[in-house]
Automatic annotation (TrEMBL):
SUPFAM superfamilies: RNA-binding domain, RBD. It comes from Symbiodinium pilosum (Dinoflagellate). Residues 3-82, 97-176 form the RRM domain. This is Celf1 protein. SMART domains: RRM. The gene is Celf1.
Amino acid sequence: MARKIFVGSLPNQVTEELLRAEFDRFGDIDEIFIKEGCPLGKQWAFVTFASPDAASAAKEATDRLLKLPGAERACDVMLAKNQGNPAAVEVSPAAPRKIFVGSLPDGIQEQELRIEFSKYGSIEDLFIKPGCEPGRQWAFVTFDSPSDAAQAQEATNGKLHMEGSSRPCEAGLSMRGLGRYRSLKWSRCQVTLARNQARTSWVLAISFHA
């Protein structure tokens, strides 16, 4: 059972004492890990409780509700995906820097995505797929670092519900451009080779169906 929570959108000057004072009302705390060297406005930490019940209670009571002094916005709080050693969250430089984001509202603009995802790190590139069917809008967000991409994926997948969308976003690490996504479950994927008669070339057509 999960005993560790991720706490994001913290003020950069946050201390262990401040976090302990805020979260120990939910139960005994075993450990607090504050990530060092975060960019301005991107500070995050792990809080590990003695019991899963305390971790769940803390998550429910504080996610997007708790705003600490000096923070620009309320904290993002979730049960940590990795329940082991905090060092395990370090990501290889060769890991993906791009995430796929699906279930976006139709007509979403680049600035809206940039505002939502830049809190997890510096964004190198944004691509919003044009011509999507209603209710099937998707985009790619490419970060400067793999760790920022991993953090954004964990923080938003199934949790971020953007205004105008009928359901929370699906977010997955893009392993090879359009080819593979981790942490996404598609009910059906059709891949076909179609020959372009006009140019006598082969086209790989990929279509996803919910």
